Structures are given as structure tokens and as C-alpha cells.
Amino acid sequence: MATLILLRHAKSAANGSGTLAGRSPGVGLDGTGQEQAAGVAQRLAGVPVQQVVVSPLQRCRETVADFVVQRGLDPVVDDRFCEVDYGEWTGRKLEELTKEPLWKVVQQHPSAAVFPGGEGLAQVQARAVAAVRDYDRRLGDDEVWLVCTHGDVIKAVLADALGLHLDSFQRIVVDPCSMSVVRYTETRPFVLKINDTGSDVSGLLPPKRESGSDAVVGGSTGDR
């Protein structure tokens, strides 16, 4: 089965602005984000990425632009990895949203949260996980693929891979341009990295053929 690299888009003009950008058009990378995106290819040097899938939003497409050109890859745009549809919350200031009754639900009981005029976080997880499983079935054994998407989408996929209820997904941190890695097997997924912003990519390489899908009793030794 395949290894998935979950790449959050690099820092955008909306990150740090105090505004919930959501699916607002025209939100691209800021200067810091452009520098982060330029480093993606170097971080993935030596990793045999066969497929790149990307959210349709500008900030995600810009994050992988240089990487796909260097690798000669044709990215697939998939709406199932789009940002959460925050509905009427889109474009509003976070300081205002923290006063909404729904804010506590989003923080403490996200599986029940449905954004007015938008979608629920449970729907987000369902569509994203279904997409991951779809690509995993299509790809051959030991292949590596990458999806560039959004923070809450990645957290929802990771929660599923970790066997966590969606209500625990707010405990996962996913920074801009961070990489999280999940290796899927016939019996279960293995989470190899979460929120990695460094350059060590050894954990992204396909496993040796003799590796099985059983967890190591007593913990991994780190040997490959």
C-alpha cells in the first residue's frame, strides 16, 4: 500500500491576519510562505513522489508549483481536499468568532460542529478520508504520493489514521508548510511524522519489501 505525505500549504496572506479565510478567492502566499514553498523540493530530495494532489485553492497550488515543475509532475486538483466550507463564518475576524456559541463546540465537540451555511467537520473528515482511501487503492505497493491541503483537513485525516475520535483532532498541531506522513497497509495505517518542518526525509522512503504490517512490540528501534 502507499505512503501519503500530507503537506499543509505554506504561510498565506491570511495566516496571522486574524481573519478566517476559508474558501475566499485570491488568498495567496505571503513572503514567508513563498520562501517555505521554495524549500519543499529540497526537503523532499530523494523521495520518489509519484503523484501530487492539490486543493483547488490558490495557496495550495502555489505551495507545490516549483516542486511539480522540478519533478515534471502533473498535479491533480481534487475538491475533496478543499478547505472547510465555513459558510457565514468565512472572512470574519477570529476575535468575533470566539464569542459565538458555536466556537466552544468547534473546540470541544467538533464532530457536532456544523458551520452556518457551510459544512460540518464530520463531513470534512468523511470526504477527505474517502479521497485518501481512493488514491491509496489506485496506487501500487510502496508508492509515495503527496497531497497539499489545509490544516483542519490534515488534522481530520491524521485523527482517522491514529484511530482517534474527531473530537480529539484539535489536539493535533499542523503548522504552515509542515509535512505529516502516513503509511497505509492492508490492515492499518502507521503515522510516521506529524507537523514536521525540518529536512530529514528518511521516514518518507518506501519500506523494505520484507516489512510486514504488524506493529513492533515494545516500540520501534528506528532501524529500516
Automatic annotation (TrEMBL):
InterPro entries: His_Pase_superF_clade-1, His_PPase_superfam, PGM_Phosphatase, Phosphomutase_MSMEG4193_put. One of its GO terms (molecular function) is phosphatase activity. It holds the Pfam family His_Phos_1. GO terms for cellular component: cytoplasm. CDD domains: HP_PGM_like (cd07067). Residues 202-224 are annotated as: Disordered. PANTHER family: BROAD-SPECIFICITY PHOSPHATASE YOR283W-RELATED, CONSERVED PROTEIN. This is Phosphoglycerate mutase. It comes from Saccharopolyspora rectivirgula.
